[in-house]
Amino acid sequence: xxxxxxxxxxxxxxxxxxxxxxxxxxxxxxxxxxxxxxxPREAVWAFGVYAVAIVGLTLVSRIRPGFVAVRLFAVAPxxxxxxxxxxxxxxxxxxxxxxxxxxxxxxGTWNILVKALLxxxxxxxxxxxxxxxxxxxxxxxLRVPALFISITTFMIRYLELISDELGxxxxxxxxxxxxxxxxxxxxxxxxxxxxxxxxxxxRGERVHAAMLARGFTGxxxxxxxxxxxxxxxxxxxxxxxxxxxxxxVALVIT
Amino acid sequence: xxxxxxxxxxxxxxxxxxxxxxxxxxxxRQSREQLKDKAIPLAGITAAFIFAAQMxxxxxxxxxxxxxxxxxxAAILLGxxxxxxxxxxVVVVQAxxxxxxxxxxxxxxxxxxxxxPAYGGYAVFRLLRRVFPSTAGGVVGATGIAAWAxxxxxxxxxxxxxxxxxxxxxxFDTVFGSMVGIHVLIGIxxxxxxxxxxxxxxxxxxxxxxxxxxxxxAQLTESKVGTRTFVIGGMLVALVFAAVVSQFAVDxxxxxxxxxxxxxxxxSGEEHSLADSLFSDYATSGISNEALSLAVAGIVGTVVVLxxxxxxxxxxxxxxxxxxxxx
Lengths: 254, 327
Description:
Chain A has helices at residues 16-19, 22-38, 44-60, 65-71, 76-88, 103-129, 132-141, 146-175, 187-213, 230-253, and strands spanning 93-96, 99-102. By secondary structure, chain A is mainly alpha-helical.
């Protein structure tokens, strides 16, 4: 968790999913994961429907399924936790391979596994087909407060630069023979974190001065928001409708 | 800690999302007031710093490494509201652009990883600053303990959400014991690194440390005994209340436990011994009694909520009282 974050998961391809407006994709992704999250765990068939739909979307997006599968390792810590559940959960137990495991706990494992994996697949698909800048633009069109959007845009813009600075500090330390193994040797790491903060802050002040020099008044200029083709929203409606419909049927019959 | 979709019940996802939205809306207003027109570039670039800081792998033991979470560090360096905002942005971008953490889990992920560590950690920092000497050493010490506490509080918040919205019938004290136990250890690294990092900033640009801005200025000796007595009294009352209520709550167990009791499911001895062996290293020793563990949970939960509230309160008061030209 938290490591290897400097590059987004975007995959350059040409598909209609790539070309869709980011706000439409954001709404679709949110609708899909929300449907997955509210589906009762006993409705195994419903998760099959979702899985088929997500694999289909992956294929039409021209994303290799292997790419999605590898990225799914991000949820590994929680999958690991879910595998312990049958042994530590309470309730009726059954014997599996000589271990007494909780039936409810097995359902819990299934619930976390299937929802985490399907939900993460949707997120991966969103990030693989949408560039970060477009995701932020989509959020702006969806009326996320402008200040939040502006700060996020700046973070994305300077992320590579600041992580490269961090990388250079690490290289400099390694070149001087720093190879810590115990927390007591962590002081250089911490002081370089402090140094990086000072550099980031001072860069922020410089950038602010440069912005003022170019006529910044406290608000970021907002580019005109393009309207979305109605057919795109129709596609989103069909897709989300199918997911919500499946979830509703699952909720009703279980 | 980036929980995936469906890890907690939808009701918890919705409630935590609402809480997070309200607090972040408040924090956005506060940071605008605090940073003025510098808010966008400064908060943006320091958010990139926190994002990068999460990639700082520091050694823990025998070659294993941990990494910073940065909530308390951001709050102490930049103030609790700006800190909460930038860690929220990091968490949101990790979910949207890096598929790390579920989209429907954003409510509790933001609450646990941004809001509770930033405001709760800052509250601990402020309280400790009152006890510790007003020197660089005092600030560094307070930072260390506050950063450690912020990680523990995040774990407590997560356990309490699990109490309300568990997606599997794992006893609360198991989750609480292992989550909090593990994070008591993880937090040590967070505390040491945050403290040393703040120390390094104090050495070169002490004016940049939000939590130390009173150091070189003349101490404002306002009489705040009334407020303080009120706050401490209120906390004591809340603590006693939480302990008493949780004692009663045990007689009326939640749905899952009730079903388990009514239908006579009991943990088999075998299962119990396995659970013990898996988590014995982490579980808080002595909390095997369910009544006691719920009481402990009630107390620590109340403490976390009060600390976050105190952090929010400090954010308002300090923004109002600060000279706008000082940042």
